[in-house]
Amino acid sequence: MTASSADAGLAPGLPRRIGARLGYYLPALIVLIVGLVLWEALTRAMNVRAFILPPPTAIGSALAENWSGGQWSLAPSVFATLQEAIGGLVIGTVTGSIVGFAVARWGTARDSVLPIAIAANAIPIIAIAPIFNNWFGVLNPLSKMMIAALLVFFPVMINVTRGLSQVHPSALELMRSYAASEMTIFTKLRLPNALPYFFTALKIATTLALIGAVVGEYFGGATQVIGRVVVQSASGLRFDVTWAAILLMSIAGITMYLAVVALERALIPWHPSLRGEEPS
Amino acid sequence: MEDQSGETVVHVDGVTKTFATRGGEGRTSALEGIDLVIRGGEFVSLIGPSGCGKSTLLRLIGDLTAPSSGSVSVNRKTSHEARLGREYGIVFQAPVLFDWRTVEDNVKLPLELTGMDRDQRQGRARDLLELVELGDFMRHYPYQLSGGMQQRVAIARALALQPALLLMDEPFGALDEMTRERMNSEVLRIWQQTGTTIVFVTHSIPEAVFLSTRVAVMSARPGRITHLVDVDLPQPRNELTREEPRYFELVTEVREALRGRGSGAGASAERLAAEGGVG
Lengths: 280, 279
Fold this sequence. Notes:
The complex is a heterodimer of chains A (about 280) and B (about 280).
Chain A: H1 3-6, H2 14-45, H3 56-65, H4 74-105, H5 107-122, H6 125-136, H7 141-165, H8 169-177, H9 182-218, H10 226-235, H11 239-267
Helix pairs in contact in A: 3-11, 4-5, 4-7, 4-9, 4-11, 6-7, 7-9, 9-10, 9-11, 10-11
Chain B: E1 8-20, E2 27-39, E3 43-47, H1 54-61, E4 69-74, E5 77-78, H2 79-84, E6 88-91, H3 103-113, H4 118-131, H5 147-158, E7 165-169, H6 177-194, E8 197-202, H7 205-211, E9 214-219, E10 224-230, H8 245-258, H9 269-275
Parallel strand pairs in B: 3-8, 3-9, 6-7, 7-8
Antiparallel strand pairs in B: 1-2, 1-4, 4-5, 9-10
Helix pairs in contact in B: 3-4, 3-5, 4-5, 7-8, 8-9
């Protein structure tokens, strides 16, 4: 262990970093392009019917024709759904964190809330979605947000509880050796310890929020949302539009995920999962 | 630091410690009839087989667990008052550095807790890290350091409040043999430089003999101090100390005490030499 090997974790020059990034993504990019070309060629050569699998170019043109207008208004629909998902993500994350705090802090909260939370988590979201639509108004985006929030709540609550409780036993003894108060132990040890757990949950939660919003939309609601576009285009055999909608949702999901990753990098650069190279 | 040599720093008086057994029907005895007086400036190692309660004894001194009977005093206060007064520093087997703090900020942790102002904290952290020869690594994060370096940061942190007493619980148990020997020399140097009284838990006989002025040998179930071995090796000690005949004699004496055979007199010099390196 020398000074130079410890410095290995620090950032190398920018050009080298971009080069490394390209090298990292290049195989995936090649696979993607080859896959798309094969997809296009095979669907054409084998004359696959459009309702089974439309070629990528058909999906592309459906996307272009229906971007902001046309019959389907894909972009406004995706934004509407994204708003529901983000609303649900916020509601679920805030309530999940609050309950997680309470459960980590008080044994009574753990004994009373945890079984209920586990039971609630066991309900298939499909079964509860129509009821939430009924409770919060089928046309009100809040009904979709609440479905998304229900999905988000559990992983956030469990991970926050874990992060606050699973501190190294010696770290607790260390704090006690300094006669630190519970409050000090909380702010200086438990809270920072919980941050990586929180972000792990948040990354899972972005995907769950989107699923929750779309599932809610399947059971009725405003027409300009991506879930309705999927249901209606599929029943009208416009599978090129359905595929375009799926593509947009996946991009929305990736965007939300990357936003959380960026936040994570900014807030906990010290965490093992974010380290560049390991020192030798 | 005031010179406390000769004064009683730790007084363990008739201490027993029992734990509820699994299931809760009975109680097992972890420590029984422990009497130990440690004076200022001493370096006392607690050595014994696994489960002999040596770590429990260290935690009793630090008031991290309470005795079932008997009393523990530190700096002529109850161990509880001493803990509230932050009168000792502690180092564990794991460095338990906070991942989210730089090396420097880890060392500053106890200083923050006492409310020392920012400038003073900065100067003190620098001094401490220079003491453990990590002055160049202040802004590194713990993951960027090797295990031995991390443990040196933990030692710096434990010394931050200039405690009269340093408790060390198998601090080098997770390190390889070469790093461990280097860390041993480092601890001796720090001990001499600071004058801190050290209580050191280990299960390595060579380590206990090399470091200590006295070795308390413990037996298991119930945990008892069976022998107190005075280590009369001259100070300052260095790598050559490990090759002296007296060092091997003492290693043997401690080893035989651990086997429950009393003093090591009568063992042949050749056997002593052969056994010296075995931990």
